[in-house]
Amino acid sequence: MTIIEKIISAHSGGKPVKPGDIVDVFIDTRAARDFGGANVVKNLLDNGLTVADPAKTIFTFDCNPGGSDQKYAQNQHYCRQYAREKGIRIYDVDSGVGTHLAIDGGLAWPGSTFVSTDSHANIMGAIASFGQGMGDQDIAAAWAKGAVWFKVPASVKINLNGPRPAGVSAKDIVLNLLSIFGANKLLGYSVEIYGAETEKFSLDERITISSMGTEMGAILIIFPTTHSLLAELKKITGNDYPMITADAGAVYDQTFDIEFSKFVPMVAKPGHPEDDTAIDNVRNVKIDSGFIGSCTNGRIDDLRMAASVLKGRKVAPGVVLKIVPATDSIWNQALDEGLIKVFKDAGAMVSNAGCAGCAAGQVGQNGPGEVTISTGNRNFEGKQGKGFVYLASPAVVAASAVAGFITTPDQIPAKPAEFGNKAILKSAVKEKVKTSKPSVVEGRVWLIGKDNIDTDMIFHNRYLTITDIKEMGQYSFDNLKGYEDFAKKAKAGDIVMTGKNFGAGSSRQQAVDCFISLGVNCILAESYGAIYERNAINAAMPILTYKPEVIAELELKDGDSIRLNFETGDIVNLVNNKAGKVDKFYDAQMAIYRNGGLL
Predict the structure, then answer these.
(1) E strands within 250-403?
(2) Is residue 326 within 8 Å of residue 295, measured between CB atoms?
């Protein structure tokens, strides 16, 4: 049997298996991440299922460690609550990439089986383990039953013949393989890699290559164990592991003999990891940013490689370099070795351990039009942001960040490329036609008897990236208890009337603009947060203050219609014709209002 057949056989009753067989496979370690973990729990609860063996079950919070996104924070907390109840281990936001933690922590080992809600769980092929990324229902089944069904894949053998060329990193090796096999020629296969040079690969190099098996369409890229690998694993985990190799008579669907000596440093062009080219073909492409990290290149060898290039150098002016170690232990090792200081001295930003830019994670994304060179495993459109992403080795990314353009460590210029001052952003100014602003308005009153309504209640910080005022109205008050549906019920011309210190907190202009977006006529409050008051006046949003006895004088009820005169402060309840006074606009406020705003 091949390696994968031997592993599956050992975990499905011990009988020999062959490609195409469908068997129930016992899973040694069953993981779920913050990305998908909440759905795993939901699947269990919705189907009345329990966890078969908490000791073999883990959560890893690696997609967005720190929960800087509200949805991630919510999912993480949900998973924590379930984990406490069921006695499940959590590798929390201070830990790092789950698949790396599994290898370094002995949760996966040569000959083992491992599943996770991570499409790169097949990274376990680096240590001759069968790892698989799976969907939420699959993982829920594994948690509940301890085993899941698999179709035994066919295997192919790749022989890398000849010497390894100088300057060709593990990332270059897998990009060369991607250029040969593309994204689907190895689709559905278990790929075993052999060759005299491959036996010298370090654990970190094997991880880089196996990590990108997903991008090749393979079930996994698996390396047989060697004595040096087992020694390296023992040093990390303290455990002794068996040798895992294919049988001498193993049957392969195909065998490929590839001349290793012809491999060259490569870069994947934006959009497709398999669209690879020699670095010389894209050398001098100007970049905006660089990223070093991910499950593919966040190991200590990768950080050392980057530091060797960055030491004594500075990131080019205007270029941003972000570095994210794969695990907290690797982060600490980099700290002990002085690598973190090298990165900081060079002007790079170093984040806590995690997956970084993948899956819209904690750091490393780029914006529209931004050109990034990255050590990630994917550069699909929108995967690491909305810009253009080239994939390369840590050394090339570091060299490019210093140069300001794509290059190699041996061709870093003495003077980096700088950005010109050519105008790129186009003015959106249109001729503004001044319209007369009414000094008297009428509208239905929302009587909200609350003090200290802050800007997070008015317009929550999760929406702060919105810049188009047309989109803001729908989120008005969606974080104010009892008024979450305000935006759906509000009508153009409505008037909001509330208590003291309205708009306390943040300086966010959106907390004013959301009401303008909805067409709210005016806001009345006993008093305002100082910044909010300025923001409203400067945006020509009518705001007035009133004394609380006015509500009794007007016998005002929620939903009544009122008339307001900004110049005189006259207020009338149109339901019963009761009249009163509020504080009128002061002169500067009226001038800005009539001008249509400060600008």
Answers:
(1) 254-259, 266-268, 276-278, 289-292, 320-323, 349-350, 371-374, 388-391
(2) yes
Confidence at 360, pLDDT banded by 50, 70, 90:
low
How many C-beta atoms surround the C-beta of residue 455 within 10 A? 24
- Give the CATH fold of the 440-594 domain: Aconitase; domain 4 (3.20.19)
Exposed/middle/buried for residue 327 (C-beta within 10 Å: 0-12, 13-18, 19+): buried
Torsion 203-207-208-210 (CA) sign = positive
CATH 3.30.499.10 is the classification of domain 3-262 = yes
The answer to whether 205 touches 264, Cβ cutoff 8 Å, is: no
Structural domain boundaries in the chain: 3-262, 267-411, 440-594
Q: Which CATH architecture has domain 267-411?
A: 2-Layer Sandwich (3.30)
Q: Coil, helix or strand for 256?
A: strand
Tell me the residue type at 113: T
First to last CA, the chain: 75
Model confidence, pTM: 0.83
What DSSP state is assigned to residue 275? -
Q: Round to whole Å and give the CA distance between 546 and 7.
A: 76
Residue 430 has pLDDT above 80, yes or no: no
Asked if the domains 3-262 and 267-411 are classified in one and the same CATH topology, the answer is yes
All residues at 6 or more sequence positions from 115 whose CB lies less than 8 Å from its CB, including other chains: 27, 29, 30, 31, 121, 131, 132, 133, 134, 138, 139, 142, 148
Grouping H, G, I as helix, E, B as strand and the rest as coil, residue 370 is coil
Tokens of 479: 């974080």
107's tokens = 């949760």
